[in-house]
Each structure stands twice: as structure tokens, then as C-alpha cells.
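Marked as duplicate of an earlier ticket. Keeping the data here for the record.
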Amino acid sequence: QTYVTPAETHNPIELQGTIAMWDGQMLTIYEESQAVFNLRSVLAQMFGLPKENVRVITKFVGSGFGSKLWPWTHCALACAAARQLGKPVKLVLSRRMMFQSVGHRPRTQQRVRLGATNESKLVSLRQDYLNDLDILGGYHENCGESTSYFYSVPNLRVHWGRTRRNIGSPTPMRGPGAVPGLFATESAMNELADQLKIDPVRLRELNEPKIDEGKGIPFSSRHYLECLQRGGERFGWANRNAEVGSMKRDGSILGWGMSGAAWIAGRFPAQASVELRDDGSARVACGTQDIGTGTYTILAQLVSDKTGVPLNKIEVVLGDTSLPPGPISGGSLVTGSMVPAVFDAADNAITSLLAVATTEPGSPFGNRTRDNLAFESGRIFAKADGPAKGVPFSDLLRHTNMRLVTGSGKSEGTLDEKKPKVSMHSYGCHFVEVTWQPAIARLHVNRVVTVIDGGRIINPLAGRNQIEGAVVMGVGMALLEHTIYDPQNGAPINSNLADYLMAVNADAPLMEVHFLDYPDTDVNPLGARGIGEIGLAGVAAAITAATYHATGVRVRELPIRIEDLLTSSILA
């Protein structure tokens, strides 16, 4: 079958803009960037400057979804104008410009063929897909990202091609590749389950791989089957009547559907610094940026966990290329990347503190050796005496007339490993209920139960917020979002928030989010992965499956339109 996802526009609420200023050959810009160090490198090359002469500052970002990962023309124009005028220049895009000048998720067309035995074991999977690209053809939406490792299949082929159109340049959008790709492959799995007359959950259980068959290596940590089990239990999947249109409530027809989800895990290279101060406070610094995902809070939690300093006494400094280099805010990889770097920096700060305790005049531990001392919960103590008789590190610093100690840390990336030993990914599933009112042709997503295997969850509240936001975005993908281009001039026609429909509060379903919380220590010592994107993967396929269960209409081209459902013969 052929599945189609439309072009979608990121539409963060914050408009993109730049403030640029020059001081001789020094360029400083304030930009809501998802990748301050990438932006610095491009601007340095563009204006013929050493990287050290360019400073990019991004203290807060009003979301980006991928549109703020790369430098765009407005930034270059602001910098050039500021240099020409000799004055600071501020340039902010209009909403209409945001539809054309800062990327979009490209349209995809995918043909998926599945073969299975009568025992419901997959024997073949073929996925051929096309991307709509711009004239330059620089970005490729990798719809086959999860195909090779998600299910066990002995015969697999993934092939892609491109079509060039005179439109603006596409760019990654939340869950690039996997989100449109899983719409196709998970929809195909649901259709196969119907043809085999088997529960779609059971079909997935029967085709669980033991290793990453695409790479021939074991998984670092995979609990997909437990996600399916937990999600089914919480949703009440055992009460599902598989017959189309058979489930009804309060005069409406119910539809139940489900889908799996998967997303990459790993690390970018990262560096950080940690200070312990004589007033009992701490400071952690990294150049990476917080795009609204809670990076400020996560880094404070990491330092508090290592040093015992309360959260309200930890200063977090981010979003500045004058700080230690940090990762881009993309791929759900910031948390996983920062854990080892911050832990390393905190450990080195503690090591410096213990050195002060044994070498500096005024220390109460002057007659001790480094091996005799330990640090725990913000206190330095002799191992023989225990923490209760220890000294707060702030007292030690004051006694030795030192204002602070500093530690620097770093971690290496994993994504460029030529021969990885394990396959690192996150997994999940969505169970969806829709109601169909045929008399008024109204389809509504009522509730969604999502279960995520995303490693150790450092901040459950922020994590749940990420998943709920992604699910709402998935509702928009399934029912509403579609950027329409003029075939004559390539400009977007619906380039405003009145004509480009997105999910709002009235469209948000009841959501139930559960985390398995199994640490994946191959990613980092804490076992944490990022979860910013996996919540969107698979949602659209679950909604179209539920729509079929309610209406009997298979929708393979998003978004679902009322016109698609008018052919339904199901009556309430």
C-alpha cells in the first residue's frame, strides 16, 4: 500500500529573529538558536572571521521543533546590515515568512509491502519512499530510520528517491524520518493484522527481534514488549471488539487503535564546568541551549545529585558560545549527552576540593592524606569518622580563604562510532480511542495512553510534559496539519495560523503517560535518554487505525479529511 504524509510547517509560537552588533572585528548576535556553536561556525566562515571573534547568545528559546537548528538568511542579513551601518540591527521574521524561509517537514510518499506466514511471522518487508526536496536537494527525510531494527524480518529492503520542487528548503522537524516513516510501517502492520485476523498487539509480540538485525548487534536496553503489555492494560485493550463499527457509547461509534514507537538514543560530544563556592552554592555552565525542554532544570538536578547542593542554590548558565561547547538541541540527545559531561565536571570539582582539604593552610584536614578523605552530600569527612563528623565544603573554602573550586568535564559522542557494540534506541507505544458521529461527520480523538521505554527518567514532570505535547502534535499531524504550495510559484498558500490548522486545547485528548524507567547505562552512567521526539512517533498510525475501526475507512494519506470519511457506511 502507498502512504502519504504532507509537508508540515514547524510553527513555533516564538518568531525567529536576530539582533546583531559589531565591535571592530568582533560579532555578537542574540538568536533563538537550537545550535549556537553551529551558528557560530557558519557565521565565522561567511564573514571571514576566526570562530573566536563570533559570539552567539541564546538564553531562552520559545520552542523550535527543528526550524532553529540551522542558520537562515535573516541572520546573515542582520549581521551584514549591522556591519554596513555600524549599529546594532534587529530583524524579526513575520509569521508568513516563517512558512517559507526557515524550513518545513517535506512531503513523503511511501510504498510498504509486508509478507507473513499463516502463523503471523514476518518473512519480508519492503519500504520504498520519495521525498519532496527543493532545487538544491540538501535534506533527506530518512523514513527508514527504524525499519531495520523495530521488528524481526529476514528479508528487508529500504530504498529512497527524491523529487525536486521549486519550494523552500526542507529541514528536520520533530522526529525527522521516524515520524513519517512509522506512520507508513505501523499502518501497514495494522493492516496486516486485520488480514491475518490477529490482534495487532499480538502481531508485534510475535515479531519481536532478539538483536538489531540491521546491524547484527545486541540492543543496549529494549523493553518494547513491556510497553505493549502495560499500555494494553492501562487502556483496557482486552475489551476491544475487533469488528468495525461494533463499539458504541452515548450515540457515538468508538474506534480503538494502536501503534508502536521508536527513536534513536546516544550522545553528542559535550563539555561542562562546575563551580563549588564558599557560600555553599554551585554553578554549572555549558554552551548548549534550552529550547523549552527543561535543560536548565536537568543540569541543576545532575549537579545536586553529585554534590548535595540544594536546587535553589545552583546557578545554571547556558546558551553562550563563550562557555564550554555543548550539543545541539536536536535528536532528543541533549540530556543523554550532558549527563557524563556534568558528572565528570562535578567529580573534578570534588577532586579539587579534596586537594584543598589536604594542602591548603587553615584546613581542618591538614594532617590527612587524600586517600583518607571522602565527599558525600556536600560534606568532606575522614573515611574513618563518617559523614556525620564531616565539614560542609563551604566551611572548608572559607577556612582556607578560597572563594571557589572549579572542575571541567567532557564526554565523547557515540553517533559516529564505526563499529558500535550495541544498538541504542528508545521505544514506546500508543493506544488511541476516537469517536465518530456519522450524522454530523465529526471525528474526535478522545483519549490516548502512551507508554515509553526511555531509559531512566530524571525529571518525570518535565518528561510527561514532553510526551503530552508530542501526542497533541501527533493529533495535529493526523487530523489537521498540511502546508499547501502554489503549483505556479511554489509559495505556501496557507501561510498563517488561521489557514494552517494546528491542534489547540479543544483538540487535546485525555492523555495518560507511563514511563518504564529502566536505566540504559550504555548511553551514560545515569542510564538516561532523551524523550523529546519519541512521543510523536507512531501517534498518527494509531489514530488512523482507530478511525478505521470506527468508520471502516482506511486513510493512508494525511491529514484525515472529512471527505475521506463520508464514504463510511457505519451508522450510529
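See parent ticket for discussion. The mean pLDDT is 97.
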